[in-house]
Amino acid sequence: MAGIAVDELHCRRERDPRTGGVDVRDPANRRASGMVDGAIAVSPRTLPVVADSEAPEEWRDPRLQDRPPPVVTVCDLGPISTLAATMIAEMGFADVAHPDGTRAWQETGPPTQPAPDAEQGAPGAPRSAARASASTPPATPRRGARPGTSPAGRG
To answer: For the region Disordered, what residue ranges are annotated (predicted)?
Structure first.
């Protein structure tokens, strides 16, 4: 896994259009500044699920199931994308990199896209009601909570 300059990312995407971008910033930051053109929005918290080829199919993002294409993770300045890149490299992605961050991307002037309203492909992202209820795991009660009580123990 390597850190790469934004211009190198442009070259990689031109050489291999399958190069995928994964934007691991929080939704507010994505909405405020847009996203790298063609990237998908996934939080670091849900990345291990949506990129896991053994997770239930309805939780996986199909764009993250094919291990051969290169994947580039991005965040504002680089540290969170470095952690995300390490995580997915450990999951079997062979060609993983992270650029200097979306701020560097915007300073060089390449295209951006508006951020989606929800994470794409993440558990809890909008789905049809039937599919969502079938695919959402049951809530786990808080340790020590009695059945039928609120999370604070007051029911």
So the answer is: 1-31, 47-71, 98-155
